[in-house]
UniProtKB/TrEMBL annotation:
<dbReference type="GO" id="GO:0005737">
    <property type="term" value="C:cytoplasm"/>
</dbReference>
<keyword id="KW-0808">Transferase</keyword>
<dbReference type="GO" id="GO:0004364">
    <property type="term" value="F:glutathione transferase activity"/>
</dbReference>
<dbReference type="GO" id="GO:0009072">
    <property type="term" value="P:aromatic amino acid metabolic process"/>
</dbReference>
<protein>
    <recommendedName>
        <fullName>glutathione transferase</fullName>
        <ecNumber>2.5.1.18</ecNumber>
    </recommendedName>
</protein>
<feature type="domain" description="GST N-terminal">
    <location>
        <begin position="6"/>
        <end position="87"/>
    </location>
</feature>
<dbReference type="InterPro" id="IPR005955">
    <property type="entry name" value="GST_Zeta"/>
</dbReference>
<dbReference type="InterPro" id="IPR034333">
    <property type="entry name" value="GST_Zeta_N"/>
</dbReference>
<dbReference type="InterPro" id="IPR010987">
    <property type="entry name" value="Glutathione-S-Trfase_C-like"/>
</dbReference>
<dbReference type="InterPro" id="IPR034330">
    <property type="entry name" value="GST_Zeta_C"/>
</dbReference>
<dbReference type="InterPro" id="IPR036282">
    <property type="entry name" value="Glutathione-S-Trfase_C_sf"/>
</dbReference>
<dbReference type="InterPro" id="IPR040079">
    <property type="entry name" value="Glutathione_S-Trfase"/>
</dbReference>
<dbReference type="InterPro" id="IPR036249">
    <property type="entry name" value="Thioredoxin-like_sf"/>
</dbReference>
<dbReference type="InterPro" id="IPR004045">
    <property type="entry name" value="Glutathione_S-Trfase_N"/>
</dbReference>
<comment type="similarity">
    <text>Belongs to the GST superfamily. Zeta family.</text>
</comment>
<feature type="domain" description="GST C-terminal">
    <location>
        <begin position="92"/>
        <end position="195"/>
    </location>
</feature>
<dbReference type="Pfam" id="PF02798">
    <property type="entry name" value="GST_N"/>
</dbReference>
Amino acid sequence: MAHEEKKLKLYSYWRSSCSCRIRIALNLKGLEYQYIPVNLLKGEQFSPEFQKLNPIGYVPVLVDGDIVISDSFAIFMYLEEKYPQHPLLPSDLQKKALNFQAANIVCSSIQPLQNLAVLKYIEEKASPDEKIPWAKRHIEKGFEALEKLLKDHAGIYATGDEVFMADLFLAPQVHAGIKRFNVDMVPWQTHPQKA
Ligand SMILES: N[C@@H](CCC(=O)N[C@@H](CS)C(=O)NCC(=O)O)C(=O)O
């Protein structure tokens, strides 16, 4: 077991919300892993060595022995199947679909619009002043939708009283929204009101 766990390597950046989803999953599943930092601000994601692992040049990347997987959604699904301890998907089909939907709102409809590469582009092509309003606008739109989606299902956590996939995607996005983009999360209170 210990031998199997040690072969896991995670290429990650401390501030990356996508990597954070996977760090939470690995920790909840009790899996030891080697943390390999990729400094996105120094452009280490563009190095030929890293791009061999993930040609699009994004973290996270998980290496499990001979298997290399990038993209947090794919990594999450892989971990869930290979390491079933502490399941992070509910068995109830509707609740499972809700978890996929909430996770996908974060990873397809929020995070890509506030990713470093997009913000750099806006800074260069529009103006540095447009960066934060752009990110806030898309984060807020996503959370408006998440609030409506989850309000009748949330318990202590997003889809009930257990931590599931949705929470792993939501928590780092909430953190990024507040800390990096100054988003006011107060309007979206589904979880704290029920806790
Ligand atoms: N869909 C991918 C997105 C990965 C992604 O956007 N990662 C960001 C950090 S959260 C990144 O590496 N950005 C580097 C860049 O924009 O150059 C996933 O969920 O893993």
